[in-house]
Amino acid sequence: LLLITKDKVSKQLKEIIRETETADAEVQFAIIAHNRFYIQDKVYFQQGFYKKVHKDQNRIYTSGHHPAIHWQNTWDPDFHENMIDIKYSFDNIKNFVDTAILSAKEPLVTSSKQLRKCFIYMLQVHILYHLDYVPNSKNINTLLQLVRYAGKTTEEFEQLVQNIKPILFDDEVDKNKVRKKNIRLEGQMLQNLQAFFRIINLSQAEAE
Question: Looking at the whole model, is its pTM more than 0.85?
Answer without folding.
Answer: no
